[in-house]
Amino acid sequence: MADRDTTVLGRHDSAQRGYWESKKSDDINLRLGGGDDLYHHHYGIGDYDHAILDAPPERREELILRELHTMENRETEIILDALGGLPSHSRVMDAGSGRGGTSFMIAERFGCRVDGVNYCGHHIDFAERIARRRGWADRVRFHFANMAHTPFPDQSFDAIVSNETTMCVDIDEVFGEFARLLRPGGRYVAVTWCRNDAVDPRSPASRKIDAHYRCAMHPRSAYFTALAAHGLVPFHVARHTEAAIPYWELREQSSLRTGVEAPFLEGYRERSIDYLVIAAERR
C-alpha cells in the first residue's frame, strides 16, 4: 500500500483531492484502459473513424470506446515526442500520474526510470499493481505527494511532465518546484487546457468545466509568466485546440458522457479555451 501521510500534501486543495479520492469506480478511465493496461486521466486528440457511428448497435459502443482510447494514447505520444531523445539512464517525474498511463508510456518508449507523483491513494495502489504485473516495479514507482511539494532532492530529474494536471494547482508554486527538481538543461513538457484570455478571461464554458472538476483553469498568459519567473524557457509551443474537438464529439455519442462534453466543445469552438503543448528547458 502507498504511504498515506497527508502532511506531504502541503497547501493542495482538499476539494480537488476529495474529488479524485471519491472516484474509485470511474467507468471512463477503467473501461477505456482495460485492453492495454494504460489507464489515463486525460483526454484525446486527432480524428476518429466516423464509420463506427454507423456500426450495428451491439458493436457501436465497443468501437467508440476503442477509438476514444486510441485518441488518449495519441495525446500522450505528443508528450513523448516533445521529450526528444531521452537516454535510458534518465529519470522522469510524472506530475499528477493518476493510474499510471503516461508513466508507463514514457518508460516503454525510453526505457528510463519514472516516478509518478499523485495525491490520490487508490490511484497509486492501482498503478503499483500494474507496475508489478508488467515487471516494472523497480523502474516505475508511484509516490503519494503533492506535485508542488515533493519529497525529492534538488536536481533529481532529467525531465518532468504534466498531462492535463496543472489546472489543479497553483502554477507559480508548482513551476517553482519543477525548477528546483530539474537539473540545468532538464526538460519540462506540459499538455493543458487553459483559458484563452485573449478571447475571454473567464468564459461561461470554462466556469462550467471548473465546477465539474472542482479545479481552477488558468489563463494562457499565466503559464508563460510563471515559466519565465522560474527560469523555464519554452522552446516549443503548439496549439492543438482544433485537434481536441473530435474526442469530445465522439464521447458525446458514448455511454460514458457525463455532461462536461458540451462546455468543452463550446469552449474549443469559440476559442475561449485552448489546448496547448508547452515544452521548456531549465536554465
Distance between the termini: 37 Å
Q: What value does the Rg take, in angstroms?
A: 18 Å
- Which bin fits the share of residues in helices? 40-55%
Q: Give helix and strand order, one letter per element, not per position.
A: HHHEHEHEEHEHHEHHE
**What is the CATH topology descriptor?**
Rossmann fold
Helix/strand/pairing category: alpha/beta
Integer average pLDDT: 92
Total strand count, please?
A: 7
> How would you sum up the major sheet?
7 strands, mixed
- State the shape: globular
Low-confidence region ranges? 1-12
What fraction strand? 15-25%
The overall number of domains is 1
* CATH class category: Alpha Beta
CATH architect. name: 3-Layer(aba) Sandwich
What's the arrangement of strands in the largest beta sheet?
3-2-1-4-5-7-6
Describe the structure in brief:
By secondary structure, the protein is α/β, with parallel strands linked by helices.
Question: Could you explain how this protein is built, in words?
Answer:
The chain is built from 10 helices and 7 strands. The longest helix is centred in the first third of the chain and has 27 residues, at 57-83. It has 283 residues and is of the alpha/beta class. The chain has helices at 14-21, 27-33, 57-83, 101-110, 121-134, 171-181, 204-213, 220-229, 241-251, 261-270, and strands at 91-95, 113-118, 140-144, 157-163, 182-195, 232-239, 273-282. Mean pLDDT is 92; it is low at 1-12. Strands 3-2-1-4-5-7-6 form a 7-stranded mixed beta sheet, sandwiched between helices. The chain has one domain (6-282): Vaccinia Virus protein VP39 (Rossmann fold). The protein is globular, with a radius of gyration of 18 Å.
